[in-house]
């Protein structure tokens, strides 16, 4: 009881000192510890990156790479969450440091963010990330997007992005992934977050999807072939153009599929504990999978339903 009282009094005194320190520096301010108490403040910096070819991200801050008129990086951060920018030999490196912030009374502090603009005539060779950044790419061309860290918690959003090489996110790389109007030879993705892919094309290589714990939603995409596995979640797809075969397996969840009633389409629906409905009829198969140029959909739900509509 005595120790608890002493700790409580100590914490109260420290709190008063921190408040006094913040108030004594032009009002209520956040304070942080870096070899002593310091008052936090916003930091804004920008740097020209003409001739940039590679981008390496070693930060957990939010990062946006988008099309712009100039090759430039702009950073908004704070002294306690400083973002470091280095540009050398056509390579831009972003990393960050963090010092614990004790009090945040000031609403004017911005969330640390990095924005990189790339001119239309610039094609990036690589974008590499090994942190936990929420990464967004908009309207840019990249040869390779690489994630070095096997386990990241950030979200990935690609919009109007062209990749020369296959998009490989097969090492549990990101949380939620959103791909819109993305073009790449193929796709390999493994995630535990929501996966949404729309209006994208992966027509040169076989593609794979593995989702551990959330839903997969596919709409208006083109594939050479696709093997999609969902452990705990639903798989929804519509308007998928397939050259070869679409294999879908869901362990605990439902499959809802919109497949055109074309003569070349063949469907096999298998359930262990659930219902299978193809075009409003309780059946397991549809079409002739042995015909020339047949497109086969193999849909399996171990503990859930399979429903196919047109």
From TrEMBL:
InterPro entries xrefs: Toastrack_DUF4097
Top-level taxon of the source organism: Bacteria
DUF4097 domain segment(s): 53-308
Protein name (Swiss-Prot/TrEMBL): DUF4097 domain-containing protein
């Amino acid at each position: 009881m005595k120790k608890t009282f002493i700790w409580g009094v100590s914490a109260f005194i420290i709190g008063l000192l921190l408040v006094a320190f913040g108030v004594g520096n032009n009002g209520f301010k956040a304070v942080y510890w870096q070899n002593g108490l310091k008052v936090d403040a916003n930091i804004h910096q920008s740097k020209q990156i003409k001739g940039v070819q590679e981008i390496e991200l070693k930060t957990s801050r939010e990062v946006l790479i988008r099309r712009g008129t100039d090759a430039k990086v702009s950073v908004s951060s704070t002294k306690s969450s400083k973002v470091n920018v280095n540009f050398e030999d056509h390579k831009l490196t972003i990393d960050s440091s963090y010092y614990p912030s004790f009090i945040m009374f000031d609403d004017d502090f911005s969330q640390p963010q990095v924005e990189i603009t790339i001119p239309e005539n610039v094609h990036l060779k690589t974008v590499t990330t090994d942190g936990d950044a929420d990464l967004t790419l908009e309207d840019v061309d990249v040869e390779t997007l690489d994630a070095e860290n096997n386990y990241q918690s950030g979200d990935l959003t690609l919009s109007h992005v062209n990749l020369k090489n296959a998009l490989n996110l097969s090492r549990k790389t990101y949380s939620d992934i959103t791909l819109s109007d993305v073009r790449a030879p193929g796709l390999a993705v493994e995630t535990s977050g929501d996966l949404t892919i729309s209006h994208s094309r992966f027509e040169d290589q076989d593609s794979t999807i593995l989702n551990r714990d959330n839903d997969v939603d596919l709409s208006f995409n083109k594939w050479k072939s696709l093997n999609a596995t969902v452990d705990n979640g639903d798989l929804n797809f519509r308007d998928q153009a397939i050259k070869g075969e679409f294999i879908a397996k869901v362990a605990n969840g439902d499959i809802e599929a919109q497949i055109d009633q074309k003569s070349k389409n063949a469907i096999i629906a298998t359930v262990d504990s659930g219902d299978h409905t193809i075009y409003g009829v309780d059946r397991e198969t549809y079409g002739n999978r042995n015909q020339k140029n047949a497109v086969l959909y193999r849909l399996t739900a171990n503990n859930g339903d399979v429903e196919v509509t047109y």
